[in-house]
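Justification of computing resources. Each target in the renewal requires a structure prediction run like the one illustrated here; the chain below, 137 residues long, is used simply to show the kind of job we budget for.
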Amino acid sequence: MQQLILITIGIAFGIALYRYVRLVRWDILQLTIFLPAIYIGFALFSSTPTQSVIEDMFFGMPIFMLVGISHMQEWTTQRKEKVALGVWLYHGFYDYVHHWLVINDGVSWFYPDLCLGVDVAVAVCLAVSIQQAKHTA
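Resulting structure tokens:
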């Protein structure tokens, strides 16, 4: 029950975050660079900070690389949104399996479930936006 409540709160926050990002016209793909940075921040407070940072960087590297590539190549907004959708889904999956992949006891007990809700909500909002753009074009 506690897990469901955290995911629901995350979904509400994810919808609010998506709406805010659209309102201020931020690049949704660039925002994803903060996703692995949060786990790396938690790793600094772990009982094994060096190991935790390295492990979290390993799984966060694809996100850093995609954001970097999007800057080097001038991607269209549609392409960035599709890649961002994949990144948010990837990170949601990572939230779900994080405790099996990485030894990072610096992560608060509530964070993975909360973040999973945020990631799924943002991904669903992006998918709806991409689908609506297809129908209006």
